[in-house]
Write a structure and sequence with these properties.
Layout (H helix, E strand, L loop, with lengths): L2 H7 L3 H17 L3 H8 L2 H9 L5 H9 L4 H4 L10 H21 L6 H9 L5 H12 L5 E5 L11 E5 L6 E6 L5 E6 L4 E5 L5 E5 L6 E6 L5 E6 L4 E5 L4 E6 L6 E6 L5 E7 L4 E7 L4 E7 L5 E6 L5 E6 L4 E5 L4 E6 L6 E5 L4 E6 L6 E6 L5 E6 L4 E5 L4 E6 L6 E6 L5 E6 L3 E6 L5 E6 L7 E4 L5 E5 L3 E5 L5 E5 L6 E6 L5 E6 L4 E5 L28 E4 L5 E5 L3 E5 L4 E6 L6 E6 L5 E6 L4 E5 L4 E6 L6 E6 L5 E6 L3 E6 L4 E7 L5 E6 L5 E6 L3 E6 L4 E7 L5 E6 L5 E6 L3 E6 L4 E7 L4 E6 L5 E6 L4 E8 L1
Antiparallel strand pairs: 1-58, 2-35, 3-4, 4-5, 5-6, 7-8, 8-9, 9-10, 11-12, 12-13, 13-14, 15-16, 16-17, 17-18, 19-20, 21-22, 22-23, 23-24, 25-26, 26-27, 27-28, 29-30, 30-31, 31-32, 33-34, 34-35, 36-37, 37-38, 38-39, 40-41, 41-42, 42-43, 44-45, 45-46, 46-47, 48-49, 49-50, 50-51, 52-53, 53-54, ...
């Protein structure tokens, strides 16, 4: 117990409430900045306030905001204000707490690990004292803390993670003042977020099915949501209350756009028989008109800056221009027959025939002056259109696959396209010529956004990337989500981006430039980079003498760890190899493959000794029993199998998991095994009776790896739920949890049982120390 905790222990609950809740603000307001600074750099105070039921991490973060409060600062004399160096230290702590808030809200006991994982590299004396006090603080249970600062540090791109949705977050929109975001989710709700504090303001409930889209009026007061329940809803963002429900569509509503005056909205619905847009009066909640004409899915709709015209893009290979005053289609940019036709609907006469897109039109944007539209199509091209005349200006060719998204710079001079060919392209809108091709994504690029200053591009694939629009060079890669990213929005000041993901979270990112380097923890230098695989490296095992390693991808490679040189390549599997284990004598290895087989290899000759057949689906894991020539494998067929490595025959099958077996480890005495599964559980098995002893439940998503401590008493497991859990194998209870920043794919434990090494989907490697209890 620290000094503050000891003093408060003897005080009444009322006094504790007043002290923890008001003391920092009171000290700053009376000009006692020294005391304000001391209390907010005291680990004891930080810990107490986070763990106190009436407060928590968000109220603590507000204490640090006070140094930016003009109402307080304007009343202070210069010598009463916090000095520059102190402000820097307070900001580091504040931003650390912001990064960790979503974890500490769920589990305040992870405070020590979060501080150590983020602050070790900062030399400020107060920071180092906080860390020292943190690790010396008492804990009733064992706890993890990173040996090195391997969590995202304050000052990097990631600002906050917003959690609360229970299903995929489909889209996010930001108010014009940049202070508030609204997210829409498959959990049937919308959430309104304060981007300054990261707190949830409201949860907007009322839809009966997934919410697919949301738009915000220009004054930031109202939002319109579109849902699979066939309705739109109008929401008051000041109160969080529903204003009205807009009914009329006969199928899911997939998109919505609001006119600049905030009085009118256009919605898109798609069904097998009818593809319509509807025009709505937002003041009355009444339908103005139904816009019919598309012959296939409508993929996007935008409204011109003057609010007079809407442009819709469809899978019928057309774009349509709609007069929002009359509700009429006055121009159809049509390529259903590889042509475009421009019609005067008053005279019903054709004006002209134009060539156009040959496949689905996926997206459309309009220049700031409302004169030009740019469409993106599955025919691998973009087209520029003159909106007043409906004529095609030019076709932009160069992509090798479908173009999914398009964005225009604020000055209307350039356009950026995103494609299934894994690239983005920057185009000169005036000449129609390609300026740059941006390469770096290893998957389809699904969305793109440009900062308001026109300097930076954000692209969305399985991660986010920042690019310089001036040079075409990649600035940085933003990793942290552990599932597909569906949408990204940029605040009006261009400083912050918000991403929405199928991992049920939103993340706030700063768009300032930072870099990360990977170092050897002890020497701070790179030891070796082992190159040679031509696919994902899925697993690695080290020989008992520590001199060699075997890695697996679409083949196996044997490495000399002293020189970093490749010794040999072992080939024979017909599909990717998922796991490998080395026998205790270091002479052989067993590999597990998606081809449903395991293979036993002679590491001296590089030849396969035998093939172990029996599983009916991908083999994901393998371990070898220490004292006998027996292997244990885990498979997508939901079973484990025991194998006699001398005969290559299956001994027995262990059944019990309800989904793929993803990991397996064996206790040092060889009597028990622990398996991990996509069914979110672990199972402890008696290898002598071949029966399950217990089931360990606690993870919220697939278990990806498992390791057992040298004493055989505990197991550690990693999961795509971003956590590492330490288990007591006798009781089956969780002893301690560490939360990372993306899916954790692998874990291992040192011979002393106190150091744990884990690897994240983001590429981070964490060295964790186990202490306390």
């Amino acid at each position: 117990m620290g000094g503050i905790a000891a003093k408060l222990a003897s005080k009444s609950a009322e006094f504790q409430n007043l002290f923890l809740g008001q003391f920092p603000e009171q000290q700053l307001k009376v000009g006692n900045s020294k005391k304000y600074y001391e209390i907010l750099t005291d680990f004891d105070f930080i810990s107490l306030k986070i763990q106190y039921p009436q407060f928590g991490v968000e109220t603590l973060i507000r204490d640090y905001y006070l140094i930016d409060d003009p109402e307080i600062l304007d009343r202070l004399e210069e010598d009463e204000k916090v000095d520059y160096g102190q402000v820097k230290t307070l900001k580091l702590i504040e931003r650390t707490l912001q990064l960790s808030a979503h974890i500490l809200n769920q589990d305040p006991n992870q405070l020590v690990g979060q501080l150590w994982g983020r602050l070790q590299s900062f030399p400020e004396p107060e920071i180092q004292k906080i860390l020292a006090d943190a690790v010396q603080s008492k804990s009733e249970n064992p706890r993890f803390y990173p040996i090195t600062a391997t969590l995202t540090t304050p000052g990097g791109n990631l600002l906050r993670t917003l959690t609360g949705h229970k299903a995929s977050v489909n889209v996010v929109a930001i108010t014009s003042d940049g202070q508030t975001a609204v997210s829409a989710s498959d959990d049937n709700t919308l959430k309104v977020w304060d981007l300054w504090t990261g707190g949830e303001i409201f949860s907007l409930t009322g839809h009966q099915a997934s919410v697919n889209a949301v738009a915000i009026t220009s004054d930031g007061q109202t939002a319109v949501s579109a849902s699979d329940d066939n309705t739109l809803k109008l929401w008051d963002l000041q109160t969080g209350k529903e204003i009205s429900t807009l009914r009329g569509h006969k199928d899911s509503v997939n998109a919505v756009a609001i006119a600049p005056d905030g009085k009118t909205a256009v919605s898109v619905s798609n069904s097998v028989e009818l593809w319509t847009l509807k025009l709505w009066d937002l003041e009355t909640g009444k339908e103005i008109s139904t816009l019919r004409g598309h012959k296939n899915l409508v993929n996007a709709v935008v409204i011109t800056p003057d609010g007079q015209t809407a442009v819709s893009a469809s899978s019928d290979n057309t774009l349509k221009l709609w007069n929002l005053q009359t509700g009429r289609d006055f121009s159809c940019l049509n390529s259903y027959l590889k042509l475009l036709k421009l019609w005067d609907l008053e005279t019903k006469r054709e004006i002209s025939t134009l060539k156009g897109h040959k496949e689905s039109v996926n997206a459309v944007v309009i220049t700031p002056d409302g004169q030009i539209a740019v469409s993106a199509s599955s025919d691998n091209t973009l087209k520029l259109w003159n909106l007043p005349t409906g004529r095609e200006i030019s076709t932009l060719t160069g992509h090798n696959d479908s173009v999914n998204a398009v964005a225009i710079t604020p000055d209307g001079q350039k356009v950026v396209s995103a494609s299934d060919d894994n690239t983005l392209k920057v185009w000169n809108l005036r000449t129609g010529r390609e300026i740059f091709t941006l390469r770096g994504h290893n998957n389809s690029v699904n969305a793109v956004a440009i900062t308001p200053d026109g300097q930076t591009i954000i692209s969305v694939s399985n991660n986010l990337k920042l690019w310089s629009l001036k040079t075409g060079k990649e600035i940085s890669t933003l990793t942290g989500h552990n599932n597909s990213i569906n949408s990204v929005a940029i605040t009006p000041d261009g400083q912050t981006a918000v991403s929405a993901s199928s991992d049920n979270t939103l993340k706030l990112w700063t768009l300032k430039l930072w870099t990360l380097k990977l170092w050897n923890v002890e020497t701070r230098r790179e030891t070796f980079t082992l190159r040679g695989h031509r696919g994902f490296v899925n697993a690695v095992a080290i020989s008992p003498d520590g001199k060699k390693a075997v890695s697996v991808s679409n083949n196996l490679k044997l490495w000399n760890l002293k020189t970093g040189w490749q010794i040999s390549t072992l080939t024979g599997h017909k599909d990717s190899i998922n796991a490998v284990a080395i026998t205790p004598d270091g002479q052989k290895a067993v590999s597990a493959s998606s081809d449903t087989n395991l293979k036993l290899w002679d590491l001296e000759t590089g030849k396969a000794i035998s093939t172990l057949r029996g599983h009916t689906d991908s083999v994901n894991a393998v371990a070898i029993i220490p004292d006998r020539p027996t292997a244990v494998s885990g498979s997508t067929d939901t079973t484990l199998k025991l194998w006699d490595l001398q005969t290559g025959k299956a001994i027995s099958t262990l059944s019990g998991h309800k989904d793929s077996v993803t990991a397996v480890a064996i206790t040092p005495d060889g009597k028990k095994a622990v398996s991990g599964s996509a069914d979110t559980t672990l199972k402890l098995w008696d290898l002598q009776t071949e029966k399950a002893i217990s089931t360990l439940s606690g993870h919220k998503d697939s278990v990806t790896a498992v390791a057992i401590t040298p004493d055989g008493q505990k197991a550690v497991s990693s999961s795509t739920d971003t956590t590492l859990k330490l288990w007591d194998l006798e009781t089956g209870k969780v002893i301690s949890t560490f939360t990372g920043e993306s899916s954790i794919y692998c874990c291992t434990v040192s011979p002393d049982g106190l150091t744990f090494l884990i690897g994240e989907h983001s590429g981070r490697v964490h060295f964790l120390h186990l202490e306390g209890g």
